[in-house]
Design goal:
Layout (H helix, E strand, L loop, with lengths): L1 H15 L8 E7 L6 H17 L3 E7 L11 H12 L6 E5 L1 H9 L9 E4 L7 E3 L2 E4 L3 H15 L5 E5 L9 H9 L6 E5 L4 H9 L5 E5 L13 H11 L4 E3 L11 E5 L1 H18 L9 E6 H7 L11 E3 L5 H4 L1 H75 L3 H26 L6 E2 H16 L6 E7 L3 E2 L1 H22 L7 E9 L5 E7 L16 H12 L3 E6 L3 E7 L3
Parallel strand pairs: 1-2, 1-3, 3-4, 4-6, 7-8, 7-9, 9-10, 12-13, 15-17
Antiparallel strand pairs: 5-6, 11-12, 14-16, 17-18, 18-20, 19-20
Helix pairs in contact: 2-9, 5-6, 7-8, 12-13, 13-14, 13-15, 14-15, 15-16
Length: 576
């Protein structure tokens, strides 16, 4: 059962793929020359390409009459009997006769496969003709030669002489008269035909040709010594000895040193003959426009002689041109790009993994730091609280001592100490109450400080006012403490010494402003009696002024004292 199923599937596949004996074209190709002849090799290569393109519907059968080896040739009668015996029962689709001898064999034996379409190429026809089921394609080498000369003139504007190497073969016989006739319109160009030579004489002649010339090479198969040659081998020796460009008319000779030209193309010949046979099978007739010519240039030879292919792209083809860098190394570049992308992806992946790991670590560190900061903040607030409480206790002890003492001078000194303690205590009190621990509001701090000084020292003093103009700025705790102590000393001194007993309308002005240069200006001014006439700033300083001077230095400030209708202490402070 399984075997029947496999057979059924195979039959379906063969039907869908067109694999049937009835649909296969069987084509006999009869060559005049041997299989290793360059032209035959080239044309058979084209037939092989056609077979591969149409597999499995095309099959070629090849026969070779060995014209280039006369001793191995068979007579026409022998060939007729041989072909009839081998192919009569094969049901050939059509026959291709390639070369003069093959064409003559079929023309002389019209009763050989009379119903089979035949496509001939060879002989001296100047145009394609057909009769009945037989088509005769012209080689048209003469036309190819004329077209090549036109192209050569474009490439060689200084052209003066054309050397035509006449190999004396039947295929090239029409070339000489065609070239002569064409050059009648170009009197500035001279034609020199090289005939009847030995190979040595030919190479010697070629080597002496001047630079304003070109060479047209026709097939050389035998020289005057009777030696036979492969035309391609002769061409290779010519191009090695020639100082000028060599043109030819057969594409099977490309790669042997010729620059190219308009030529009989083995590929075009094979495809046109095959297409002609298919046309007859499909339509019962042939077309008139089968073209076996192609213009082909050898890029390596063009480069050697510094020439460019004439005409527009599409009118010619180029062989032996190196592929571009990207085409040559396509797979290498693809692999390189893929490798780079893979490596880049790997690097990005590693970087992302590291970033993720670092983020996790930083998150952990951040949490630890936040916890540590909170803990340190708590500690600092606790320290401020304890310092404030200790200062309050100290102030209370000083206050008790003030009440216990009967000496007014001692009381006054204790009041000064108490005010100093107050100025420091207020800093720690503000720090403890504030949400932040790094800034003190100047307006709030100095207002509270001056209010406490006024309450402690102006109980028995009437007619004296403490006025303030304080900028609402933020200060560092250390700076606020230093400035508070200086304000305390300067205001206390003014209250003690500036105003005689019973004075009315006494004013003490405290200003603290930020200047344009970012410095701060502190001024304590009174309208009292001013400094004594004999007052010496350097030697007359009391403890309070010494404190002010020392704190001014620590704040990188500048202290100036003026005594004119009162006293003015001016301090310029750099708090950056």
């Amino acid at each position: 059962m399984r075997k029947k199923a496999y057979t059924f599937i195979l039959l379906i596949f063969m039907t869908l793929s067109g694999f049937s004996q009835a649909e296969r074209h069987k084509i006999l190709v009869l060559h005049s020359r041997s299989a290793d002849f360059p032209w035959v090799t080239a044309i058979n290569k084209a037939f092989e390409s056609i077979r591969e393109e149409n597999f499995p519907n095309v099959r070629f059968y090849f026969e070779f009459m060995n014209k280039n080896f006369p001793e191995d040739r068979l007579g026409n009668d022998v060939w007729k009997s041989y072909l009839a015996g081998k192919y009569s029962e094969l049901n050939l689709s059509f026959i291709i006769a390639e070369g003069t001898e093959a064409v003559h064999l079929l023309k002389q034996n019209i009763d050989l496969f009379p119903k089979v379409p035949k496509i001939h190429r060879g002989g001296d026809l100047v145009k394609n003709t057909w009769a009945g089921n037989s088509l005769y394609l012209t080689s048209n080498i003469a036309t190819a030669a004329v077209r090549t000369i036109l192209l050569a003139r474009e490439q060689n504007p200084e052209l003066k002489t054309i050397f035509l190497i006449n190999g004396g073969t039947q295929a090239t016989t029409p070339v000489i008269p065609a070239v002569k006739q064409f050059l009648e319109s170009y009197t500035e160009i001279r034609l020199v035909v090289i005939s009847d030579f030995s190979l040595e004489e030919l190479l010697d002649t070629v080597s002496g040709i001047n630079n304003e010339s070109i060479i047209l090479y026709t097939l050389v198969m035998r020289d005057t010594t009777g030696t036979t040659f492969i035309p391609r081998d002769v061409l290779e020796e010519i191009t090695q000895n020639s100082p000028v460009t060599v043109y030819t008319f057969w594409d099977s000779l490309l790669g042997a040193g010729t620059v190219g030209g308009t030529m009989l193309s083995a590929n075009r010949v094979a495809r046109e003959m095959y297409q002609a046979g298919i046309d007859y099978l499909n339509h019962g007739s042939y077309k008139q426009d089968y073209d076996t010519m192609a213009t082909i240039w050898d890029w390596q030879v063009l480069k050697r002689y510094g020439l460019k292919p004439p005409g527009e792209k599409g009118e010619y083809s180029i062989i032996n041109k190196p592929d571009s860098f990207f085409k040559t190394y396509t797979w290498e570049l693809v692999i390189l790009v893929i490798t780079v992308l893979v490596l880049f992806s790997a690097v990005i992946s590693v970087a992302l993994i590291k970033y993720h790991m670092v983020s996790l670590i930083l998150r952990g560190k951040k949490a630890e730091l936040e916890e540590l900061i909170d803990y340190q903040t708590l500690l600092i607030r606790e320290i401020d609280h304890r310092v404030k409480n200790n200062l309050a206790i100290l102030k209370s002890m000083v206050s008790l001592q003030i009440h216990e003492s009967d000496n007014q001078e001692v009381k006054d000194n204790l009041h000064e100490i108490s005010n100093r303690i107050t100025s420091i205590k207020n800093i720690h009190d503000d720090l403890y109450k504030a949400e932040g621990i790094n800034e003190i509001n100047a307006l709030k701090y100095f207002t509270e400080l001056l209010t406490q000084i006024q309450e402690s020292m102006l109980k028995d003093t009437s007619g004296i006012m403490i006025n303030m103009d304080i900028a609402e700025v933020q200060l560092k705790p250390r700076d606020a403490m230093h400035i508070g102590l200086m304000v305390n000393e300067l205001v206390t001194n003014a209250l003690k010494y500036a105003f005689p007993a019973g004075i009315a309308n006494g004013n003490i002005n405290v200003t603290f402003t930020k200047e344009a240069n970012e410095d701060f200006l502190l001024e304590v001014t009174d309208n009292g009696k001013g400094l004594p006439t004999a007052f010496d700033i350097e030697t007359g300083k009391g403890l309070g002024l010494k404190i002010v001077e020392q704190l001014t230095r620590e704040l990188k400030g500048d202290l100036k004292i003026y005594s004119d209708q009162g006293t003015r202490f001016s301090l310029m402070l750099d708090l950056s």
